[in-house]
Please model this.
Amino acid sequence: MEKRPTEVDDVQRMTKRGMQWLSAVAEDPELCRKYWADDLRRPYALPVGVAFEMVVTDQRLGVEVFDQLERRNMPVGPVMADRGSRQVGFFLPLKARDRFARLVGRETDTPPAYRYLDRGSHVVVPGPIPMADDRYQWLRAPNRRPESSPLRTASLAVMLVASAVLLERADHYGEHCADVQAVNGGPAEVGEQVVGRAE
Model:
């Protein structure tokens, strides 16, 4: 059985190039590097809007989005999880807010809940090597400076909407089955129809 991102055995670790890129974003890069040299597990607050922006969703939706992006080999940058607040954050290129909102709007008239963080915001990121039980975790740690590709923004927008629809359908699956059974005469008949289709 394939493991979901929250169940992976190997903790995601930043590469040295990833650490250099992310620490350069800090208001005091040298202090950030010193903190991480002393403790590679230590989370650190970074300003958003200097080298990246971020889309934040609730954990359930965020993990599904990440899982779908990974399965389909779609462009995705660094992704982090805050287990304490049960949220997932997706790193995006600078000045992507309008494009992201426009792309989400093309997919649906009722977009799923998310927050977009840009200049003026701060986010606490995991340390370079968090342990499995730490509050802040990398689902995909930065291994270098991410490319400023519009495809990452488009992929996230499309998959955010698709994953929200998938989860909503899953949540209402029992209700749908009950309706089908009532129309078709009960569980046995529904089971026969499903087998018949498969054959």
